[in-house]
Amino acid sequence: MRPLIRNEFDELLSLDDHDSAERFCRLGFQSLNAELLALAKELAGIASVPLPKALHGQKTVIDLLMSKWLERPTRVTAAGVRAFVVDRARKRCFMDGELKELVPLREADMDFVRLAGVEDWQVADLEKKKRIVPLEAFMWFAGLHLSQGRLAEAISGYAGFGIVRWPDFGTLPHTTQQVKLAAVLMKSPGDVARLKEATGAAEEEVVAYLNACYLNGWLKETAPAPPPKIEENVAQRQLLGKLRSSLGMER
C-alpha cells in the first residue's frame, strides 16, 4: 500500500504524486513565464506545497527600488517582463526593451520578484550589450506607472509634501497636470487632499507623482497645510455694523 498525504481540500494523494507536484511547483516558481508560474501557484494550492517568500520582504515595486537590496548593481527578474539591472550608484539602468514594457510589474506578486547581485565584470559586459536608461527617467516612469495607487511606505506617514527641485520636464515625459503639481509642491506644499484640491488631479495621479519625486530624491516632508481662512461675508459685516450703531455699540 502506498503512503498517502492529505491536502488542504481533504483529498488524499500518494507521496509519489505529491513529490512530483512539489518538484513541478518548485521549478515553476523559478520560471519567468507568467503562464507557467500561474500554473505552479495553482497546483501548489491543490497539492499543499508552500509558496516561497521573497528574502527582500518588500510589499511593492516602489518600496523595492529604494530598498537596501538595490544598493549595489542588481538584476531584477519577474514574470511577464524582461530582466533589467538597476545601478543606483552610477545613476543608470540596463534594459533590453522600452520602459513601457515594465508596466506588468504594477501587478507583480512580490514573492516572485527575484534579485541577483551583478559583478563589476558583468556590468562592463552590460555596458556593451544593453540599452542604458538614465536612473532619473527610470524612477520617474516607475513612480508614475507602477505605484498601485498607494504611497511608498517610507513617505506614507508624511504630514505634508513639498519638493526640493523642479523636475526636468525638458527630458522627462509629462502631462499638464504634473506641471501643476510641481508648481503647487514648490510654492504651497500640502497633503494629498490639498494637492488634489489645488490641481484638480485624481488621488491616484497625485500619489503616483509623489512616488516619482520620492524615487528621484526630490520629495521632502513639510508641515500640514494651514486651514483655509474663512472670509466674513461683506453683507453680514455691514448688517452687523448697522445693528451695533443702532444699539449704540462701538464697532
Quick description:
The chain folds into 3 domains: 4-47, no CATH class; 61-143, no CATH class; 147-222, no CATH class.
- Count of structural domains: 3
Global Rg: 27 Å
Low-confidence stretches: none
Q: For the residues shown, what is the average pLDDT?
A: 85
Shape: elongated
Sheet of most strands: 5 strands, antiparallel
Taking the alpha carbons of the first and last residues, their distance comes to 102 Å
How do the helices and strands follow one another from N- to C-terminus? Answer: EEHHHEEEEHEHEHHHEH
- Provide a count of the helices: 9
- Per DSSP, what share of the residues sits in E-state strands of 2 or more residues? 5-15%
Q: Structural class per helix/strand content?
A: alpha+beta
Percentage of residues assigned to helices: 40-55%
Strand order of the largest sheet: 6-3-4-5-7
Number of strands: 9
Would you give an account of this structure?
The protein is α+β, with helices and mostly antiparallel strands and 251 residues long. The protein has 3 domains: 4-47, no CATH class; 61-143, no CATH class; 147-222, no CATH class. It has 9 helices and 9 strands. The protein has helices spanning 15-29, 34-47, 61-65, 120-129, 135-145, 176-187, 192-199, 203-215, 234-246, and strands spanning 4-6, 12-14, 74-77, 84-87, 92-95, 114-117, 131-134, 160-163, 219-222. Strands 6-3-4-5-7 form a 5-stranded antiparallel β-sheet. Strand 1 and strand 2 (12-14) form a beta hairpin. The longest helix has 15 residues, at 15-29. The N and C termini lie far apart (102 Å).
